[in-house]
């Protein structure tokens, strides 16, 4: 996974800026170039993972969410159920949460349709009726709870893909910070809770640590006897001199 940033860098160096002052045709054309660069980078990353001889990823894998900032342009590529959430200041001075990505899970009708068209099965276990999982056509395995991923090659023939969902956001003066985090954070903390945690910190490093620490504490309280999911968070402050304390 450490190679993903370098793969992106190779693909985006010559890409045009997506400017809100351009006409719609130009903006669409430029954004499509960014999308193709993201698609290519993710495809190469998945291929690279598959070539690793010392790592068996037939039924193991990972999600990914990538944010690329170019001045006030923000391009986000999302794979699986990691998430990007924005902290935005309202007219009243309150920092509100704005989710910028969609959790790509088999519970989404469009994702389930693709998987079933490829002969994969989508169903929930009796003991977990609220969690849709992906299964092989004739085996009760592996039960993947996301619909897109790096790795998990056992299911790549059955609808699991490594193609990200790519979106664009123009950063406004009201956009204060961006949080990227894995589902281990979002499974136990709401978007609003994470935004409140970040608002109580002074810098991006402290914010990232505070979010992870809060998620670990929440896991221990909510699921004391369960294996904890990966909890990773990165925070990016978008305004150089933003003051977040006492905003909520």
TrEMBL record:
Pfam families: PP2C. Gene3D superfamilies: PPM-type phosphatase domain. It comes from the Eukaryota. One of its GO terms (molecular function) is protein serine/threonine phosphatase activity. Residues 1-238 form the PPM-type phosphatase domain. GO terms for biological process: regulation of intracellular signal transduction. This is PPM-type phosphatase domain-containing protein. It comes from Capsicum annuum.
